[in-house]
Design goal:
The protein is mainly alpha-helical. It has 30 helices and 5 strands.
Length: 741
């Protein structure tokens, strides 16, 4: 492990913090400007990380020195940019403050909001203003003043927050800190990570490039690698996987940031934002994946960035910076998980329609500042045909930026397989292959049943039976392979806290109710931004419909829905806040408050239990991160394999083998070999596949290797072991050595 690399790990974090201060907008009408700055800084940092990997990969220079230099240069550039920005911000702050104070006085005198105020800047919750309502004197002027501004907001929250808001915030903060502890203590042990997420990182490190390689596990080269690019930086800088879980942990924080900012943009005050953060943080799937090396939260965070940036486009004409950010978020989503585009697409359509409406709205129009067409102050910048041209050009820029981010990977896939979506087995295994209404309905019902699963066995059995019987009635086989992944069989229990399967009945139900009321009675939920709320709800509902119409049902499909859940929970937070805000009689108000408290308590209990007893990383019980050894933690999914891997690796190391052949099947664990067969200096072993599913990349000749390690099938191993070699095989793992070794 490189000490210098560990020190350089601080550079991306420092650059992100500096970028946040630089990108903290000075516009007095900006909604939640600090969170907007965090979103933009995350996007810029993410794009830099991706393009650095692509450039160094093309140069075959994916090494510690090259990556370290890249991050140090990036940090130096951000610090250099911050200095002139600080001077300009100080001047702008002095100019903006008097005008903003005047606007506030006018609003107080007339009962109207200050000029240009957005939907979240107008209402003030009973507990006090959000960060969108900060006083003009707190406009940041650099890193120091930005940090001072954060401290001021925390102090303001402590002074003005109600007991309930303190409890909500404290619970969220406590869960985030516990997740950080688990992420740091637990070794990566996700099943898919052992098969393809982490092996692909090791292949890149070993070969110093992003070139495809012969492999029996097609997902190592065909699945979009956006999250793994981020892991690659940590792998090169630290020499290991000790910090790998922090990528998903940071993505969970990003989901909280974008989710609460969406609420602010839709007119929600501080309580609504805290309710949203609480529901997201206590959702078991979010809590469990926040300590994992899965990729679903990363995709959800990037898609959430598209959502919050698209909502900005409902209020004002997009400038170049907004277009670049929107394109970056779209590209990062596509590069991480293509299913995330099912939400990105409707959100971009929403943004484009709003931009066209603003283009035709006269500058003098009297517009409700909370409506979807608000932004009259900037609409006059481009009207009529000129506005349409500007919108089309902006849309093209968004697509070009997205293509620059995801294009290199798609180009490699196209060259290798003749199709940008990969080989036929990938295109046919996950997407729905029947699109008649009856099949789509059955697929949607099964996905919904798994997502809303509960520990109540009679309820699960009853609803599953109704779905299977109903599907046969309308002529659809409930296990039809065209709408069912692989050989899986519906239904499966999904209520228990396993990161790959756990359902989200409470958050999902509240989001569903929030969407229904947002579509039917948006003014009751958000009096200041009803049109924006309804439009956003439509985009979310369309995303859900697209998902159920394009993705096959599968037992672990709940985690594939995370990007939709993150987009939908803001609707739940807004609805719960409206329920508490409504003027009801004393009895009805008590019932409503009791119902909300009960739902929140149940959500908190689910989140705490997921962190405490969740699988495969938990705080207490068998497999606790405090009492389980490193190696045993890695094998909690399959503890019976741990000793077999060590046994085979020890024999291969003792033979002094240098070039080692791999025999494995599509869902076998490869990552343990990369850990066990490193040399004493920690350098990667030379592992070559003796099977390949890539037509143009033939496997290595078994006679060209010094040893062979096998997983899964003894028969497959026997077929590839050269004559005269000694083969030893246990239940899952085996090895073969040539004579004399």
């Amino acid at each position: 492990m490189s000490a210098a690399g560990w020190m350089v790990v601080v550079a991306p974090v420092a650059a992100f913090v500096v970028l946040t201060s630089v990108l903290w907008t000075r516009r007095p009408d900006a909604v939640a400007p600090l969170r907007l700055a965090v979103v933009r800084a995350a996007l810029l940092t993410g794009v830099f990380a991706v393009l650095t990997v692509e450039l160094l990969g093309a140069l075959r220079a994916l090494t510690l020195p090259a990556v370290a230099v890249a991050w140090l240069l990036f940090l130096a550039a951000t610090v250099a940019a911050a200095r002139p920005w600080q001077r300009r911000a100080a001047v702008a702050s002095a100019a903006v403050a008097p005008a903003a104070r005047a606007g506030t006085l006018v609003g107080a005198a007339t009962g109207a909001p200050a000029s240009g105020a957005g939907p979240a800047a107008t209402p003030v919750s009973p507990a006090g203003p959000s960060d969108a309502q900060r006083p003009p004197s707190s406009v940041p002027g650099g890193l120091a003043s930005a940090l001072a501004g954060v401290r001021a907001r925390l102090a303001h929250f402590r002074r003005t927050a109600s007991r309930g808001e303190r409890l909500l915030a404290g619970t969220v903060g406590g869960l985030v800190l516990v997740e950080l502890l688990v992420a740091l203590l637990a070794e990566p042990n996700n099943f898919d990570s052992q098969t393809y997420h982490l092996p692909k990182v090791e292949h890149w490190v070993a070969q110093g490039s992003l070139d495809f390689w012969p492999t029996a596990i097609h997902r190592q080269v065909t699945i979009p690698p956006g999250a793994e690019y981020l892991l690659l930086h940590l792998r090169l800088l630290t020499g290991g996987d000790a910090l790998h879980n922090l990528v998903q942990w940071a993505a969970a924080l990003g989901c909280l940031v974008v989710g609460t900012r969406v609420v602010a943009q839709l007119g929600g005050g501080r309580r609504a934002q805290l309710l949203t953060a609480f529901l997201l943080a206590t959702t078991p799937m979010v809590a469990l994946e926040a300590t994992s090396t899965q990729t679903d939260l990363v995709a959800a965070a990037w898609a959430g960035c598209v959502g919050t940036l698209a909502l900005d486009g409902l209020r004002r004409r997009a400038d170049v910076g907004s277009l670049l950010a929107l394109g970056a978020a779209t590209g990062l989503t596509a590069l991480t998980k293509t299913s995330g585009l099912l939400a990105v697409g409707p959100l971009l359509v929403l943004w484009g329609v709003a931009q066209l409406r603003l283009a035709f709205r006269p500058a003098s129009a009297d517009v409700d500042p909370g409506s979807a067409s608000a932004g009259a102050g900037s609409a006059g910048e481009g009207r009529g045909a000129a506005g349409v041209v500007r919108t089309v050009a902006g849309s093209l820029l968004v697509l070009l930026v997205a293509a620059a981010v995801v294009g290199p990977f798609l180009a490699r896939v196209t060259v290798e397989f003749g199709h940008p979506l990969g080989p036929p087995r990938l295109r046919e295994s996950i997407p729905v292959e029947r699109h008649d209404p009856a099949s789509i309905l059955v697929n949607a019902l099964r996905i919904g049943h798994t997502a809303f699963d509960t520990p109540l066995a009679p309820l699960r059995a009853g609803t599953a039976g109704a779905i299977t019987d109903g599907s046969r009635t309308i002529g659809v086989d409930p296990q039809d392979r065209a709408i069912t992944f692989g050989r899986e069989v519906f239904p499966v229990p999904a209520w228990y806290p396993d990161e790959d399967r756990v359902a989200f009945p409470l958050a999902g139900t509240l989001a569903l109710l929030g969407a229904v009321f947002a579509l039917a009675r948006p003014a009751r939920i958000s009096p200041t931004a009803p049109a924006a709320l309804r439009a956003y709800a439509v985009a979310v509902v369309v995303a859900v419909g697209l998902h159920t119409a394009t993705i096959k049902w599968q037992p672990w499909g709940n985690r594939l829905l995370l990007y939709v859940l993150v987009a939908a929970v803001p609707l739940a937070g807004l609805w719960l806040d409206a329920l508490l805000r409504r003027r009801l009689g004393a009895g009805r108000r008590s019932v409503a408050a009791g119902l909300v408290v009960t739902m929140l308590a149940a959500s908190a209990l689910a989140g705490v239990l997921a962190l405490s007893y969740g699988f495969p990383r938990r705080l207490v019980g068998a497999g606790s991160v405090f009492t389980t050894s490193e190696w045993d933690t890695r094998f909690l999914r399959r503890p019976q394999w741990a000793e077999e891997f060590r046994w085979a690796a020890a024999a291969v190391r003792a033979s002094d083998a240098h070039r080692i052949g791999l025999v494995q099947q599509n869902d076998n664990w490869e990552y343990p070999w990369w850990l066990l067969l490193r040399d004493e200096a920690g350098r990667s072993p030379e592992l070559v596949a003796l099977q390949s599913v890539l037509p143009d990349r033939p496997p290595a000749d078994p006679a060209s290797v010094d040893a062979i390690v096998c997983t899964g099938s003894r028969t497959a191993c026997v077929e590839l072991v050269p004559t005269g070699w000694t083969l030893e095989f246990r239940d899952y793992v085996g090895y073969a050595l040539p004579p004399g070794r």
